Amino acid sequence: MAGGHPAAALALFQANLDAATTPEQTATTLTSIAECHKRMGELEEPLTELRKALESLTQAHGRDHRSWQTGMIRTKIGQTLLGLSRYDEAELHLVPGYIELLDHLGDMSDRDRTHFIAVRNSILDLYRKTNREVAIQAWADALIPALEQKVEQPGESSSPPARTAIESVRALGLAYVDAG
User: Fold this and answer.
1) Backbone angles phi, psi at 43, to 5 degrees
2) Distance CA 179, CA 12 (A)
3) What is the pLDDT of residue 163?
């Protein structure tokens, strides 16, 4: 946040957090607080805030709750851990979080499209940093059947069917590339 006003941003987010009336609003605000800390160059604080965001949703909806929002938070936790070189922990959030995003692809907003691709790239980066190039192909091979089914039968979603189909085909195409 060079040249910005991080203290003002944090105060604004805190007021928003105090006004939150749903777990989803709480999680969104905690995610914003995490992003603010990240932009301020802090390393551990974003992780703490993201974990609180995920906890607000799982407390309200159960530990097994899966959604686009929980997938986003899980993958952001994974990306934060990757940035801290905590590779084993990062993988535990990135890979399942990416699958969760795929399962809820139709709920992706336009502003989330870049994050979806960034998560894929983070997984590839994780495997390269841990000298597990072979894992890239195995990961992609495991994704392909589910993605092929999603392309053939898009299923229910809140997004227009064409957009869901386009994003499913895009994810499938990238998995084909990753599979070598």
Assistant:
1) -105, -45
2) 45
3) 58
